[in-house]
Design brief:
Elements (H helix, E strand, L loop, with lengths): L1 E4 L4 E5 L3 H4 L1 H16 L3 E5 L1 H5 L2 H14 L27
Parallel strand pairs: 2-3
Antiparallel strand pairs: 1-2
Amino acid sequence: MTISYLAYRLIIEYDGRQHAESQEQWHHDIERDEELDDGGIRRLVMVSNDIHRTPSRTLGRITRAMARQGMAVPPLKDEWRRHFPSRPGDLAMLA
């Protein structure tokens, strides 16, 4: 899954297990990352643990990346928490 904000030169991506298990996929990802980097595009990658084990920290990573790329990021509401409750080790880094 990929969310692209090309006007802000930001791509937010969820990588499934195949990105780690398939050498072909891994090499493809490396080549693509180099092309994106050459174009000045920031790629932020999430994996399963980011979503399900550390959702607060993950949202913090996303909002900071968006702000660094010049996007206006509204304050987050807590409504997401009922779908992704925090677990031990999830740092509430939503500032």
